[in-house]
Amino acid sequence: MPTAHSGKTRRSTLAKSHSALAHHFDDLGQQYEASTLGMWAFLVTEIMFFGGLFLGYAVYRAAYLEGFIEGSQHLDAILGALMTAILLGSSLTMALSVHAAQVGHNKLLARFLLLTMLLGVAFLSIKGYEYWHKYHTHMVPGFAFHYDGLHPEIVRLFLSFYFIMTSMHALHMIIGLGLQAMLVMMAWRGRFSPEYHTPVEIIGLYWHFVDIVWIFLYPLLYLVG
Amino acid sequence: MAEVVPQRIYYRVFAALITLTLLTWGVSYVHFGGYLGIIIALTIAIGKTALVVLYFMHVRYSNRLIWVYIGAGLFWLVLLVGVTMGDYISREWLPVSVGWQRLNVPDYAPHPTAPPVSEEPGRRPATP
């Protein structure tokens, strides 16, 4: 066994006997590479999932641009910009969480993760307010939808895209918050070290991906025309 | 293990992301003709994505196999959107035969909300 990877002498002996090391990996470095690659494979399937939604949106937007512009005017662009800034901020704190994990600072890691979760909850609260406001003004397709405008049918179509795409995005965020809560527990128990912090890294990848989806949703839904 | 990226890089990337968000919001109030507005908005979004992927997601420092995976995902996305939108956008570029257009007139079953068909024999309703 030792001769097989003598080229990797920079790995410490600690990394080969770590409690987090699964038996089918040579060392923590190899395990880390496999985990991140697996996460990226999952994220590629997520690109496909959201790509289909974005494509459906693009086809109907190209066909009914005027109605989509009218529908977009019922979304608050400034509120959307604020949500974008909050989500970008949460990506920053997530990146700083990974940094804290890399330097083995579990307390700081837990704090940055809690800050990330706080920003995520702030985002979802604004989203919830938007949904509530749309429900209140009868602009939720399927729930007593009523709209008097130039293109009521197209505005309903636009809002259907709005609700499906943003709710799928919000669902991903809720899952992300759950995963981050799990990381906070692990950090409080001092589970992470410079040798082993793979869960923080791959949940960070997931969170940044959800951020990227919103980076596209914001101009496409709030800033049409 | 992943390279430890200095914190100041994260702060700079965040500042750039916020700047680009303000830019995309500000530019949306300018009315460009045709496709220019959406092209600018998507270019800014792609730029923001590149910053997030390269720095926050550490892809700049990752091994090449991860680049291959991302490349495969992007290739698929470009194919999906490019080919489909190429079809929808170019459909009206070339004239279609009059016979094909006549087939589209639903004179055999008028839509309930369609204007009443003229009583004159031999007249078709106006194209919807």
Short description:
The complex is a heterodimer of chains A (225) and B (128). Chain A is an all-alpha fold and 225 residues long.
Main pleated-sheet profile of chain B:
none
Number of beta strands of chain B: 0
Structural class of chain B: mainly alpha
CATH domain topology of chain A: Four Helix Bundle (Hemerythrin (Met), subunit A)
Describe the oligomeric state of these chains in a short phrase.
Answer: heterodimer
Which second-level CATH architecture of chain A applies?
Up-down Bundle
Report on the structure:
Chain A has 225 residues and is mainly alpha-helical. Chain A has one domain (26-222): Cytochrome c oxidase, subunit III, four-helix bundle (Four Helix Bundle (Hemerythrin (Met), subunit A)). Chain A has six helices and no strands. In chain A, helix 2 packs across helix 5 and helix 4 (106-136) runs antiparallel to helix 5 (152-188). The longest helix of chain A is centred in the last third of the chain and has 37 residues, at 152-188. Chain B is built from four helices and no strands. Chain B has a domain at 7-90. Chain B is mostly helical and 128 residues long. Chain B is flat, with a radius of gyration of 25 Å. The longest helix of chain B is centred in the middle third of the chain and has 27 residues, at 64-90. In chain B, helix 1 runs antiparallel to helix 2 (36-56). At the A-B interface, helix 1, helix 3 and helix 6 of A face helix 1, helix 2 and helix 3 of B.
